[in-house]
Design a protein that fits this description.
Elements (H helix, E strand, L loop, with lengths): L8 H18 L1 H29 L8 E3 L11 E3 L8 H4 L7 E2 L3 E2 L13 E7 L3 H8 L14 H4 L5 E3 L11 H4 L4 E5 L7 E7 L2 E16 L3 H10 L2 E3 L5 E9 L11 E3 L19 H16 L10 E2 L12 H15 L1 H14 L2 H7 L4 H29 L3 H4 L3 H23 L5 H28 L5 H8 L2 H17 L21 H27 L32 H6 L2 H15 L5 E12 L8 E12 L3 E5 L6 H8 L7 E6 L2 E2 L4 H5 L2 E4 L11 H11 L4 H14 L17 H13 L5 E5 L7 H14 L4 E5 L3 H7 L2 E6 L2 E6 L1 H8 L2 E8 L4 H11 L4 E6 L2 E7 L5 H14 L2 E8 L2 H18 L1
Parallel strand pairs: 4-6, 5-9, 5-11, 7-9, 16-21, 16-22, 19-20, 20-21
Antiparallel strand pairs: 1-2, 3-13, 6-7, 8-9, 10-11, 11-12, 14-15, 14-17, 17-18, 22-23, 24-26, 24-27, 25-26
Helix pairs in contact: 1-12, 1-23, 2-9, 2-12, 9-15, 9-17, 10-14, 10-15, 12-14, 14-17, 14-18, 15-17, 17-18, 23-24, 28-31, 29-30
Length: about 950
């Protein structure tokens, strides 16, 4: 047999690992479905990619010929071939060897101007060290009139100051100011009443364009700080007349003068529309630089001197077909869901063990916290690693650039760190859930909510250059956003191929300021370590049995006293009422416990010294003593039966002894170890058969016994033999019952398996809480035989409601009522002490009832009638007053005098003793 006290860390770890592998084998179908989830997502993205590729092959996405003047149908001679600048799609796809020349524009903020009236105002702020210099130069910014040459309209636009509200793109092949249906504004010092328009033909685009006049107003500010404050207060400001002036730009001439030109230009770098956001949009800054340079030149040379800004032109480019990498565009969102899919699996697995009390069941059979954490963590890490490997392999085989372009070593490090963080987070949150359904729903809400918030909020903020990087880092402290940011960086690196000339993410790219992968990795590593330690701490304080002291980690700095039964003194705290209630047998038990405490002996496996458990009152209810002043000593080789009505405190006593709750006061020792401080040592030599079966539904009976046998240090042939004997002795061996999953067992089969688990590995102390519940008579007799055999070399505490079972198994009995031990002794002693009467029953006709009473009075004047109904009477006869032979002779005489239909004489049963003691104790408690 094994030696539980010498079970090593690795023995426990080996037992748990084997159990987990067996459990995983049972759930192979669920594992396959789990691994297929990323494959399904990848296949879905492939199908979407195929559909988009088919669409992009259509003619409207290729460089070709279109009808001029936006006609839908036309002859071939009327078609214009080549890049169509009116077509937003063809411009970036066609080869352009000679890009179009577009007149330069100012970027104007969106305004609402009434047509045909000079109601538009655009403001330019300026300041300078030399006030008069600044005023003089700023007056040269805007012309007084719009000058146009009808014979050469496009060339005549350059000297004028034109601007547009249109949003820019990331290139100048197409100028939205001329191709979109938005007016162009001419900034002048004064405006005529009517607007003008012009027709143009430029870069394959023809159309009619409206030019609206807008007043350009220069406003002086005393310092650059005033300008800065005004700009950041908002884009709009009211003048004295209540009109809205739009700030176009601002200039600080600093120390400029006739001998030197030094200027600072403010411009708006945030371009947003109601629909899209272009993070790399071009800025219309050159026109502002040209204006201030021209103003200074005219200050020096006169108003006739100008530097004409004729056009803006893009660099030539080859044909660039549109390619959309769906995995890179949508991968950050979809792949976030793929990775987070593991979180509910891990969390529900941990909560399931907690809800079914399997974790505490394993602890009560000797499994330490160290092996549990190491094996469980490693088990989930292995499962996550396999899952992520399949995810990357599937994506790579299907050809997603998201996987193939980015360095696999960076991907491995990123996924490895995050899976560890995810497992640690699951351990942490498992401490706060007690129901699997609640944990599952919460986890999946978190999974899909995280993906949606990250895809539609967090990504928008990451792309916004004006949003604080510090706030981005704060948001990345949430693990889901950190995961999304890393996947987003992978997607950006993969989708940028062809646009920026990169080849995916490499380690050298992590040092770049725009790449957020480095900060994400640092955040996740720090959180991994912190969350893991916090999870372990909370688990120790809240989740393992009765929990540990919040400062348990400081015990290593304290000198630990050796556990001992011997105590210097014993202090009693009992009321006079309870002292008067104590029976001689209870007093003798207390004296025996006191002697054991002074002269400890290893023969007594269990010693309880003045053990108390008090539950404080809640919601206006008074507190209650579930156990009070309990003294008990149980030696090895004895089965002690605890009897008591429901609510008497038996379960509270068992809960304290197995470590589920801590005693309010007093102490109890198991094999010399104090249950208050050394439960981990007690667990190695303890077996428990709980009132409710705590089993894994997917494991067989044999696998349960193998697991718990390994926890008790059984190995090899010894383990196999012990398991086989347990199965045979409890009738779980025949008919392949041993290899059937426990979830398919009947209630009686589960009880027998629970008893077998409690006895496997030869524990020194066994607690059995109503072990025969739900068993048929044959199985009950078999179970009794096993328990009788098992109690020879161990101490057993048995609770039951069956008087027959208590009498058959218990060497001593204790009747427990209202939290106190009312009496102790073997069944015969209790029946002799509390049931010293015979019960005499006789049934006659109603005419002879008086004759029966007279007969009984002749037997003993101390007889007590306890029942009378229609000729049937029952009497209690004190045993010391009558003899059985006298009763028989009296009945024979009576039969000759009148008709006796039936009669009987019965001894006191254990049930009678139980009822009598319980009623007396409850009556006394009510009176007190």
């Amino acid at each position: 047999m094994g030696n539980p006290s010498s079970v090593s860390f690795w023995t426990q770890a080996n037992a748990l690992l084997r159990k987990n592998l067996t459990f995983q084998k049972r759930n192979v179908k669920s594992n396959i479905r789990l691994i297929l989830f990323p494959l399904i997502i990848c296949v879905l993205l492939v199908l979407v990619q195929i559909i988009i590729d088919i669409e992009l092959r259509k003619s409207e996405f290729k460089c070709g010929c279109v009808c001029a003047n936006n006609k839908t149908r036309c002859e071939d001679s009327e078609k214009v071939c080549g890049p169509q600048y009116s077509d937003q799609i063809q411009v970036p796809t066609c080869p352009i060897s000679n890009p179009a020349e577009w007149p330069p524009l100012l970027q104007l903020p969106a305004v609402s101007c009434k047509q045909n009236r000079s109601s538009c105002h655009f403001t330019t702020l300026f300041t300078a060290d030399n006030h008069s210099f600044g005023h003089t130069v700023s007056k040269n910014m805007f012309p007084s009139t719009l000058v146009m040459n009808d014979s050469n309209i496009m060339d005549s636009l350059a000297p004028n100051v034109l601007g547009s509200e249109s949003m820019t793109t990331d290139n100048n092949f197409n100028e939205p100011g001329f191709t979109l249906a938005l007016p162009i504004y001419s900034l002048q010092t004064r405006c005529p009443r009517n607007n003008s328009g012009f027709s143009f033909a430029m870069a394959g685009t023809t159309g009619q364009q409206e030019i609206r006049c807008a007043r350009g107003i220069n406003l002086w500010r005393n310092s650059s700080s005033e300008i800065n404050n005004e700009l950041y207060k908002g884009y709009r400001r009211h003048n004295r007349k209540g009109r809205i002036n739009e700030i176009v730009s601002a200039f600080d001439f600093l120390n400029s003068n006739e001998d030197g030109f030094n200027v600072t230009v403010w411009y708006n770098s945030t371009y947003k529309s109601n629909i899209t956001f272009v993070p790399n949009a071009l800025l219309r800054i050159p026109r502002s630089i040209n204006l201030v340079s021209n103003a200074y030149l005219q200050f020096l040379k006169g108003p006739g001197t100008k530097m004409i800004f004729e056009f803006v032109k893009e660099m030539p480019k080859p044909e660039t077909p549109i390619r959309l990498e769906i995995a890179s565009l949508l991968g950050a969102l979809f792949f976030t869901w793929v990775v987070l899919q593991l979180f509910p699996v891990i969390l529900t697995s941990l909560v399931y063990e907690k809800q079914q009390k399997l974790r505490i069941m394993m602890r009560m059979h000797g499994l330490g916290d160290g092996p549990y954490w190491i094996i469980s963590y490693g088990y989930f890490l292995a499962l996550s690693t396999i899952y992520m490997l399949c995810f990357v392999i599937f994506g790579s085989v299907l050809g997603f650039k998201f996987f193939t372009l980015n360095d696999y070593s960076i991907q491995f490090v990123f996924y490895f760190i995050y899976t560890n963080l995810q497992i640690s987070l699951a351990f942490l949150l498992a401490s706060f859930f007690s129901n699997v359904k609640t944990a599952t729903v919460t986890a999946y809400i978190g999974v899909f909510g995280t993906g949606l918030l990250a895809g539609f909020l967090f990504q928008f903020l990451v792309q916004d250059p004006s949003f604080s990087r510090g706030w981005i880092i704060c948001m990345e402290l949430y693990p889901g956003f950190a995961l999304y940011r890393g996947l987003y960086e992978f997607a950006q690196s993969a989708s940028s191929i062809g646009n920026y000339g990169t080849d995916g993410m490499r380690w050298k790219d992590l040092s770049g300021g725009a790449n957020g992968m480095k900060e994400v990795l640092i955040i996740m590593v720090v959180e991994w370590i912190v969350v893991l330690f916090v999870a372990y701490y909370i688990d120790q304080v809240l989740s393992t049995g009765s929990g540990k002291n919040p400062l348990f980690f400081l015990r290593g700095f304290q000198k630990k006293p050796l556990p001992s039964l011997k105590k210097p003194s014993i202090k009693r705290q009992g009321s006079k009422v309870f002292a008067q209630m104590e029976k001689p047998d209870v007093i003798r038990e207390r004296e025996k416990v006191e002697q054991l405490l002074l002269e400890p002996t290893i023969n007594h496996a269990i010693v309880c010294d003045n053990l108390k458990k008090f539950y404080p009152g809640r919601d206006g209810n008074l507190g209650k003593f579930a156990v009070r002043e309990l003294f008990l000593g149980v030696p090895r080789g004895e089965c002690f039966g605890m009897l008591g009505p429901n609510g008497a405190g038996k379960s509270s006593f068992i809960s304290m002894m197995i470590g589920l709750t801590k005693p309010t006061s007093g102490a109890a020792y198991v094999q010399g170890l104090d249950i208050r401080n050394h439960m981990d040592g007690i667990y190695t030599s303890m077996g428990v058969c709980p009132q409710h079966d705590l089993l894994w539904e997917s494991l067989t009976g044999r696998e349960h016994l193998l697991f718990y046998g390994r926890l008790k240090n059984l190995t090899g042939s010894v383990l196999t033999q012990a398991v086989e004997e347990s199965l045979k002795s409890l009738n779980l061996y025949h008919g392949r019952i041993a290899d059937k999953q426990a979830g398919k067992y009947s209630g009686g089969m589960k009880r027998r398996l629970s008893v077998a688990i409690s006895l496997i590995g030869d524990p020194s102390v066994v607690y059995m809480d109503e072990p025969s519940t739900g068993l048929d008579p044959a199985s009950r007799r078999c179970l009794w035989k096993v328990i009788k055999h098992a109690k020879r070399d161990r101490a057993i505490i048995l609770t039951t409601h069956s008087m027959e079972e208590a009498e058959a198994l218990s060497d001593r009995l204790g009747i427990f009522v209202n939290g106190t031990m009312q009496c102790l002794g073997n069944p015969k002693e209790l029946k002799g002490r509390y049931g010293g009467t015979y019960v005499f029953t006789m049934t006659t006709s109603s005419d002879h009832e008086k004759d029966v009473e007279n007969m009984v009075q002749q037997l003993t004047p101390n007889a007590n009638k306890i029942y009378h109904l229609s000729g049937t009477q029952k009497f209690e006869l004190p045993k010391e007053d009558v003899k059985i032979a006298s009763v028989f002779r009296a009945v024979e005489v009576a039969k000759r005098n009148f008709t006796v239909f039936a009669w009987g004489l019965a001894d006191t049963t254990l049930e009678d003793v139980f009822i009598k003691v319980a009623r007396e104790a409850e009556g006394f408690d009510t009176l007190s």
